Amino acid sequence: MLFWLTEFADTLPGFNLFRFITFRAGAAFFTALLFGFFFGRPLINTLRRRQVNGQPIREDGPESHMLTKTGTPTMGGLLILSALTVATLLWARWDNPYVWIVLAVTLCFGAIGFADDLSKVSRGNVSGVPGRVRLALGVVIGLAASFAAMQFHPSALQGQLAVPVFKEVLFNMGWFFIPFGAFVIVGAANAVNLTDGLDGLAIMPVMIAATTLGVIAYAVGRVDFTAYLDVHYVPGVGELLIFTAALAGGGLGFLWYNAPPAAVFMGDTGSLALGGALGAIAVVTKHEIVLAIVGGIFVVETLSVIIQVAYFKATGKRVFLMAPIHHHFEKKGWAEPQIVIRFWIIALVLALIGLATLKVR
How many structural domains does the chain have? Predict the structure, then answer.
């Protein structure tokens, strides 16, 4: 919204800064961060009053969670989404379709997660919105977002799947790109949701992945950078750097309260929304495969559940002590902060590998 201040750039000193995506991204980051610091405690107090018993804890999870996490309120994702939305609307250009696509996906998945969290808290158990309903709604959102992104992509890239490292390789998926894009978005949303099982475990890898995708978006949205890096040019997509900066700022504001021991959980409200955002950014920037690298933590968490379920159904035995895999390490005796910080380190390494695909050709 504040982009309109560039109209004064020729008459008033300093207003020229509003033309630069990097300046507005920095402003969005600090706006979201301050929003989180300012409204975090009032939101937590409100959630505690309305959620007398806090988030219901799964009885089939680690035994220690029944002692350490009982009574902690959920829906803390509202803080991230509010900070993210306010900062994005303030600092991003409103005439950019990619911003609206990603923001819409984020808020729609956030609404699904909110309904799920509300159902759990109201009933006092872990049974929220039926999984099939959540999946069906997510698929509809993913299909709509992928279709919209395809319409705004340059004609040479419409329906194409870009392969990292190999600059000339494009797979023409045609209209099949739409269900593929939906798969990426829905898969990312549910992968982050599965990862959100320990205090601070999901939010930092999400911020790292979002920041990485934001840098990629900025690069592929500039014709000079794409010429130098030999990557595909997607006009206008660089504006998503503002969105990802706002996500990082809001995420840090939330992490202040979610660091062990957590004062609030993000819940499905946050995890589904943030995962959907990552998937949507990957689809509009044509970096769906790179998302699997940058978000490798989420991929491994999801695969651990799939492997555990499939192997148990086939043999009656388990591969991991408990799935998702972060619970496996809990069962092996790792302390929660130890697991969380090591996963953060892995997420950072994977992000650097993902960034490297921009130049390795």
Answer: 1
